[in-house]
Design a protein that fits this description.
- This protein is an alpha/beta fold and 293 residues long.
- 39% of the residues lie in helices and 14% in strands.
- It has 2 domains: 32-121, no CATH class; 145-292, Nucleotidyltransferase, domain 5, CATH 3.30.420.
- It has a 6-stranded mixed beta sheet with strand order 5-4-1-2-3-6.
- Helix 4 packs across helix 5 and helix 6 (187-204) runs parallel beside helix 8.
- It comes from Rhynchospora pubera.
Length: 293
């Protein structure tokens, strides 16, 4: 835990005898707000940006911070601000866990590129939807909701498995996300449990028409009926049967495979859940993926 990344005190509490403080500058404040705005490693990025934010007025907690920014930042620039925060967070993760350093100019350029890419590629996928076996070739389902799911699993990692999903509506507006840690037997089993988590959440919310995006092709093929449940490893077999049984109750659910690079947000949350060993965190709009830091 000596190189743990800062977290919001609302979400995580320190275990006794665990070192505290910012992992980058050593300041006693280890909150997300400090890391993203007040830390000397983040301030050069904001000085280069178009935002003139006074760190003295920023709330200490993440949720009040997002409300503060919504009320004090021009709506047309808000998306850019969120993307800068997101890329700063990614750069911090790379610095703490991989020892990689990024200069402020590159961070700012990455944020702009990320925003443009997300705006152009929102739900514009390079792969076609895989229809369930009983769907005709000419049936096209316009999904009302979109679940992006992923899992993080390591055989050598005693911290278990991280699972996450991000839920968008048909307009690309973030509705909710959830992440949790757990135990899985394999990478496939971890991806399956992530899908199960999202599937149960959709059913609980009464969502009848939605698409699930996964970067695990084996999982997509089993759900789509292209591979039989018997083809998966035996330890995942009964979980596969359970998910398929739930799936068959909803004719307007579709599952599609996407490249891993298009699933970066869910991947980041899943890795966070595994590294931090969180319990279940469930955030409803207006949350942002940054709220879990």
């Amino acid at each position: 835990m000596k190189e743990a990344i800062a977290v919001d005190s609302v979400i995580a509490t320190r275990i006794s005898k665990t070192p505290s403080g910012c992992s980058l500058c050593g300041h006693s404040d280890e909150s997300t707000v400090h890391v993203l705005f007040k830390c000397p490693h983040a301030q050069p990025v904001w000085r280069l940006s178009q935002f003139n934010l006074s760190t003295d007025n920023l709330p200490d907690r993440m949720v009040p911070l997002m409300t503060f920014l919504l009320n004090n930042v021009d709506h047309s620039q808000y998306s850019m601000l969120i993307n800068i925060m997101w890329v700063i967070w990614k750069d911090i993760c790379k610095r703490v866990f991989e020892g990689k350093r990024t200069n402020p100019q590159v961070t700012l350029a990455s944020a702009l590129n990320w925003m443009i890419t997300m705006e152009k590629a929102q739900f514009t996928l390079g792969t076609s939807f895989y229809k369930r076996p009983n769907d005709s070739d000419d049936m096209h389902v316009a999904a009302d909701f979109h679940f992006w799911i992923d899992a993080s699993w390591s055989h050598a990692d005693s911290q278990g498995t991280g699972m996450a999903y991000i839920l968008f509506d048909r307009e690309g507006i973030l509705v909710q996300y959830q992440l949790t840690d757990g135990q899985a037997y394999s990478p496939f089993h971890a991806e399956l449990l992530s899908l199960k988590m999202a599937l149960l959440n959709a059913m609980d919310k009464g969502i009848l028409n939605c698409a699930f995006y996964t970067d695990c092709l084996d999982l997509q093929r089993v759900i789509a009926g292209k591979d039989s449940p018997e083809s998966v490893e035996w330890r995942s077999y009964y979980d596969v049967l359970e998910v398929i049984a739930l799936w068959k109750k909803h004719s307007a659910f579709i599952c599609t495979h996407v490249n891993r690079g298009k699933n970066e947000l869910a991947d980041s949350l899943a890795k966070y859940a595994r590294i931090r060993g969180v319990c279940t965190l469930d955030f409803t709009f207006p949350p942002f993926h940054l709220s879990v830091m």
